[in-house]
Lipoprotein
Amino acid sequence: MKFIIIFLGVLLLGGCSKKEVEEVQTKNTSDAKTTVSTSKTASESTGKSSEQGATTFSTVSEEERQKKIYEEKITQYNNLSEEIKVYLAATTVDSRAESPNLMGFSIYYTFEGDKLYVQVHSGAGVGHPIYVLQYDNDYIYPVEGVVNVSIDETQVAEINPAPVSKVDLLEKYLNSKNSYDNGVANLENIPDIPNWFNNMKSRL
């Protein structure tokens, strides 16, 4: 009988030990999974942050690069001669200024304050509008125009008032540089053009 009691006690103790070992093993496994999961989440978060940071840096760098290119082109435009810039401005209001080498035409112009007065002329007759344009740092703005359609009749000359980018005008010049460089000889600064314009406008 005493032997049986001792034997049952050993069995009970063995059962308890086995259960405790299983509980410890389960807890360790759970802790390990939690640690791996936490590490994975932290790694993924770090990876996403790095990707977002790289994307933001790339975007900012590209914006800065484009801004620098734009500023260089504006500087390049501003360094063109006055005659070439006037010539280019004339093309924004009068298609005749687009003629290769300005063959058969002259461009009369002058500045008054912040206004440019420009007229493309064939040398005879009527139908030669005078246009007024204005500038800012980036654009040229056609403002208004008048034209004598006959000896006795003056009309408003149609314009497209949309601003024209100086960068676009620079590209136009570079694409047809020889033509503009040759045609510039047909430009003439005539200070009296604002008076011509005002006289024509008074007859509207």
Summary: The mean pLDDT is 83.
